[in-house]
C-alpha cells in the first residue's frame, strides 16, 4: 500500500510502468473499468447507466482477482469526474472516494470527455504529432456535453472547456475547428448537429477502458493525484429532468419547427 503522506510523482511513488492503478468511469451508458500493474493490464466494458451503482464494485473485485491483487495494493484510483449522467457521476465519485479513503491512497480525476478524445485519437491517428477533436456527447433534452482538445507534444491540451450546449450553440462552436468530431451525439442527433459537410467523425468508441487507463497512467506520471476528499463530480446541468409541462412545450416547439419546413 502506498504511503498517503507522499504525493504521486515524489521519489517514493511508483513509476507509471510499475504503479498499480485502478480506474473506472460510469458517466455514460457503458461502464469502463481498468486495472494496471507491473505484470499486466485488465479491462472491463460493461453495461452502465442505472446498473453501474450495483455492478461497479463487483467488477472491480473481479479485475483485482484476475490480476492476483488486493485493493490495499493499489497506488491510486482514477475516476471519470464527468461531465455526464448525474447518477453515473455520483456513483463514480462516491466509490472512488470510499475506496481511496479506505486504503489511504490518492485519487486521479479524469475528464470523461477526454476519454472519448483519447479513444478517437488512437482510432484515427495514433502516431500523429498533433490531433484536434471536438467531443460531443448526448446530454438528452436536445443538448450535448462538449469540449475541444488538442494532442501535441505528447499530451492533451484543453482548448475549449467542457460545457452544456444546445444543438445550435454546439454547431456554432464546432464551426471554429476543422478537427475531428467524436462522441455519442453524432449517432443521437445526426444532421441536427449542423456539422460541415465532409467533417471527419468518430461516432463510436473502440476501447473506452483502454483509453481511460492510458489517461490514468498519464495523470499519475504528471503527479495529478489529490486527496480522496477531492473526488468531486463535474456537473454541467443543475436540472436533470423536465416537468410534464416543459416536455409538452418542447414537443410543441419541435412540431412547430417540423411544420414550418
UniProtKB/TrEMBL annotation:
Transmembrane segments: none annotated. It holds the Pfam family TsaD. Residues 53-174 form the Gcp-like domain. SUPFAM superfamilies: Actin-like ATPase domain. InterPro entries: ATPase_NBD, Gcp-like_dom, T6A_TsaB. This is tRNA (Adenosine(37)-N6)-threonylcarbamoyltransferase complex dimerization subunit type 1 TsaB. The lineage of its organism: Bacteria, Pseudomonadati, Pseudomonadota, Betaproteobacteria, Burkholderiales.
